Amino acid sequence: MRNCRMQEMLAGGEAINLSNCQRTPEGGYLLPDDLSIDGMDLCDAAAEAWIWLVYQPENGQRIAITGPEQPAPPGCQVVWAR
Fold first, then answer.
1. Confidence class of residue 11 from pLDDT cuts 50, 70 and 90?
2. Which of 41, 70, 79, 81 has the fewest CB atoms below 10 angstroms from its CB?
């Protein structure tokens, strides 16, 4: 891994790797209902990408996205942001 800070945070339990999460057709990460993200940093270690935003649409499934070019859709609640 080239991103040393990401590697340190993952090893130290400060970040959660979402690379194994199911994906939406748009490329978002579907977060498991039982995954606690409070106080954590989020990333895709395989892509070495930090998560920028987690939002929750009306159906309740939390979705994480990697960049500001993918804003949360209208009507969704932002539940975590970088």
1. very high
2. 81
Angle, alpha carbons 11-17-21 (nearest 5°): 155
What's the half-sphere exposure (Cβ side, CA atoms, 13 Å) at 58? 2
User: What value does the mean pLDDT of the chain take?
Assistant: 93
pLDDT the model gives residue 4 = 95
CB 51 within 8 A of CB 79: no
CA 52/CA 72 separation, integer angstroms: 11
pTM: 0.91
The DSSP result for 3-56, as a single string, is -HHHHHHHHTTSEEE-TTS-B-TTS-EE--TT---TT-EEEETTTTEE--EEEE
